[in-house]
Predict the structure.
Amino acid sequence: MIKGSNVSLAALSEDAGSVIVGLGWASPTGEGDADVSVLLLDANGKVRSDADFYFYNNPVAADGSVQLLGKTPTDNGSEDRISFDLTAVAPDVERIVVAASRYRGARFGELDDVRVTLADAAGENLLRFTIDDADSVGAVIFGELYRRGEEWKFRAVGQGYDSGLAGLATDFGVDVDDAEETDTTSAAAVLEDAPGDERAETAAVPSAQATLEAVPAPRQPADEPAPRKSSARPRTAKKKITLPKAAVKTLAENDSWKQAKLFPVSALKSDRDREMRATSVLLSVMAQVPEFGRRLTAAFGAPAGRMETFTEVSLPHGDTPRRPDGVIRVERAGKLWTALVETKTNGNPLKAEQVQAYMDIAARRGYEAVITLSNDVALEGTPLVDVKVDGRRKHKVALWHLSWAEVAHQAQLLIRHEGVGNAAHAWLLQELLHYLQHENSGCHGFQNMGSAWVPVRNGIDDETLCQGDPRALEVVESWERLIRQVCLRLGGELGQKVLPVQRTRRGTDPRARRSDLADQLCLNGRLHAELRIEGTPGVLAISADLRTGKLRTAMEIPAPEQGYPLSWAKRLVRRLAEAPADLHVETLVDGDAGGPRGTLERLRPEPGDMLPKDSGVRITGFRLSLFKGMGSGRGNAESGFIRSVDDAVQRFFTTVVVHLDGAAPRRAGVR
């Protein structure tokens, strides 16, 4: 559609009594977002009362005519969906305005692909309208549904408001009280200043402590005192529910009382029990919490639609039927997307014969994917299971892998940072996370460096490990899996992006890169990796010296662009007032010669010792390092190598990085 055009819904579909309107956009930075709102208008073009204004704190109409469904991830951004039952709309409602607004001064010009779509009750897309001219506005009317006689039509509007949602709401009769007249303002005034989850905690519906000077409501005559209005609009649920930062005080008499859990683990006695329980727990939560199910399947090509999950399904295969651990089906617009699921727990490897059989079954039955799920972490260019694909078949089946660490990561992001639609969903995800993290569930992620770990360490100790040894390559692959898991765990706790840094040219074969790293391991006995943590001033480097048995975590921070070197040194020491005394600080200078270095304990009384004696040498930055003994075992036990790496990264971030300029604020849940 083009701006200003309109169309009859009955002309587009025979099933247009209920429709889904989707408002979407993409952000170049990945951080831009907006909030949806709906206004029901009478013949005068005004809301009948404030209750006709629907947004994140008032998402559902009592008569079921309007329901805000929340956000759904898309390939290049997100989409907010609203369900309208047009048969339930009150007769005195002539128009339904669908709008969205940004907050904290953000504008729609900062977003890409601003659009509105409309689908009928069967999920069939009927129309699309793209808004190209919403540059400097903070709120936009995307479109409106309106009556013409007995039928409903849709008009592509695309009208922007410089004054944001407050100006839009005021135009349609939503009360926005003048701050000079009263200490309360309507919800529309509050919506401009904070993202949805923060506003949901502070905005009383419809009133909250706030001020709005830009769009005051008309004042009453001076001789008539303005009575304080009480709200007719009920306080509703928050837009997003996350776990409370502080634990609620328990009612238990003593510590020996254990809370009842939805997914108990005490009865799990065998690997088969663990696989069956883990599969059923995960798939049931995916089906009941749409945000979570969509997170785990969107990357595999699944559409955004109604999801159902099944376990222990029997499918014919030759003389003996096969029983995949699970089946995921997503229905969208009458079409089905189906994936078979094969699960392993407790570090058990995937079996190529099993996966091959499921690939063949999926191809014959027209299914789209096979998803494997285990403690292992997939690496680019190195498949966990080798399967053969029959090129003669027209139907192609995708093989995807999911780690239990990735499942826990997505659950953490939703319930601790981003939020889900309601408290029941948050509780389900919390129970799932508790189950995954329990020592008896078998879902602990990557936890074994492999059979080559001990021989490689011994070969480095006695200098008998030679370049080209395949065992060194196996250790390098295990190290990369471990680093990816560390990124997932830290990112889930922080609610930020944590990604491994690959310092290779784009297009380099991953297997060739790992082969080079294996040769370096044979030569110098060290494993090295770098993590980029969103919001921090540098890259966190971690190296494991297998000769000395030491782990080193470090970060280089650049020197300030202005000021004097002594001021830089003093300021850095003040910033690190709560950092460990054994933190090593090294001054980085131009040239090959290293700068001064020392422990924080020695430098605290004399920050000037960090400066080179030659005042003409230019300081480029500072390197901060912590050292720790690494575990000797190949597993995840208290004395294991994997646990020691995870602990080293956690300690460095929580005791050093959080105190630096540009570091992300410290969050609850970080050890």
Observations:
- Residues 579 and 655 are 5 Å apart (CA to CA).
- The two ends are 52 Å apart (CA to CA).
